[in-house]
Amino acid sequence: MSARSLFSIIGCIIALTLLPIGSSAFAQVSNASAQKEKLAELQAELRARQQVLENNKASAQELENVLKASELEIAKVAKALATTGQALKDVQKEQATLESEQEALKAAIRKQQSLLSSQLKSAFMAGHYDYAKMVFYQDDARTFERVITYYQYVAKARQKEIESFRSNVARLEEVNAELDEKAQSLAALKEEQEGQRAVLITRQDDRKTTLKKINKTIASENQRIASLQADEKALKDAIEAARIAAERAAREAEVSMAGLAKLKGKLAPPVNGRIRNLFGSRRQGQVSWKGIVIDGAEGDQVNSIAPGKVLYADWLRGFGLVAIVDHGKGYMSVYGHNQALLKQAGDDVRQGERIALVGRSGGQEYPNLYFEIRHKGKALNPSAWLD
Q1: Residue 309: strand pairing partners
Q2: Distances (CA, A) of 222 to 48, 226, 282, 316
Q3: Alpha-carbon distance 40 to 17, whole Å?
Q4: CA-to-CA distance for 138 and 146, rounded, in angstroms?
Q5: Backbone angles phi, psi at 300, to 5 degrees
Q6: Contact (CB, 8 A) for 245 and 324
Q7: What are the pLDDT tens digits along the chain (387 aa)?
Q8: Which of 327, 303, 339, 366 is nearest to 243 (CA)?
Q9: Distance CA 88, CA 12 (A)
């Protein structure tokens, strides 16, 4: 290969920079406009519903049903928001990996350009740029053979560098295209997340209004105690149904779960936060706490304290969105007041696996997790089991 052709190759290949992100402004504006229209429709629908409740002086049960509907809708949006958030993290991670590869490729290309340039300069200075000239101006056969061998060796080395150079340039083009795609994907995900967050805030405002109406309706001490007792009975019934289902499943299963007996005092808390209400303390009237309430930030993850199977995942009056996990040997853990449930009944869970998001469902004013541990239906003090 002549020096002229080598110079030609180098001159044609230039270092590439990140391609500008393709403009999809029109599509994004159109999508944002559609989201705003949907949000406005939702806000109007919820205002109309609250007006109907106000005019009809709805009963406590009717308001409870509206609260349930609101909290289930909030759960749906919160779950979608969590999924979008995870997708955003994944895309950002992929983008960071591609950017690192891009920088490495650019550095390699610059190095190869410098190396090839030096080789060409050396060849030119030594007079090796004209193959015919080198062949015909040799004094003896031995020198001629040595020059031919040397020239072939140098030519092969240069050819290898050029192929590597071309390969790096081609890969850089691919990386630039992938980065462009990731950038557009990120923009779409962020826009989707903003829309979901706006809907979540609207739903939460509706829930807040309904909760105020419920508190006005349940005015007296006796009414509140009766309401708490009804809430407790609903949870107890759900736990008992789950216990019976767990026992039936254990009889049918070939391998039973290990339970919690050996983990007493060693379990990681399902949420990191301050314990606000203690097991056994008076709640109201003769109603006492059967579990603990752990403060948390809305949307924080709720983790399963041990391996098990989800037996119950639904909305329950007074406790909102509740998950009940069977750990075997009669042991169960209960997680209430969640913003969203990320597992369904029948799902297997690992220790420390995310099963829900901290919320304020069940009529809570502040985000928290209601947590119980039970053995064969009997409530145990969770504080004695947590590390």
Answers
A1: 326, 348
A2: 32, 6, 15, 21
A3: 43
A4: 10
A5: -60, 150
A6: no
A7: 444 444 444 444 433 333 343 444 445 556 667 777 777 777 777 777 677 666 656 666 777 788 888 888 888 888 888 888 888 888 888 888 888 888 888 888 888 777 777 766 666 665 554 555 555 555 555 555 655 565 565 667 667 777 877 888 888 888 888 888 888 888 888 888 888 888 888 888 888 887 777 777 766 555 666 666 777 777 778 888 887 877 777 766 655 788 899 999 999 999 999 988 688 888 776 778 899 999 999 999 999 999 999 999 999 888 999 999 999 989 999 999 999 999 999 899 999 999 999 999 988 889 999 999 999 889 999 999 998
A8: 327
A9: 38
Single-letter amino acid code for the residue at 239: I
Could you give the residue ranges of the DSSP H alpha helices within the chain? 3-12, 25-56, 60-125, 131-136, 141-217, 221-252
CA separation for the pair 245, 248 (Å, rounded): 5
Q: Do residues 78 and 127 lie in contact, with contact meaning Cβ atoms separated by under 8 Å?
A: no
Closest CA to 31 of 191, 258, 175: 191
CB distance 202 to 46 below 8 Å: yes
3-state secondary structure of 103: helix
Neighbours of 156 (CB within 10 A): 11
